[in-house]
Specification:
Blueprint: E1 3-6, E2 10-13, E3 18-22, H1 36-44, E4 52-58, E5 66-72, E6 78-79
Antiparallel strand pairs: 1-2, 3-4, 4-5, 5-6
Amino acid sequence: MLKITCPFCGPRNESEFVHGGPEKPRRPEDPAALSDTDWIDHLTVPDNPMGPVREKWWHLRGCGQWVTITRDTVSHDILDEDGHDRR
């Protein structure tokens, strides 16, 4: 089980949160310049990298705020801003 630190409520159990998925890349400056296939991929196909990924988590059973964390998808360790394990 993950221990997620909410900036408002402090360290909490993962069961209080709902996973919102990876942080989305910025919208292209000129979406019309993309092909239909590239635009559909941008909207619907998430990256699935191995290693550190910035993710959104909703603190549903707490303060109701969205929290962004960096989690290693291989080890499930939550990393600090410098990419180091927070344990």
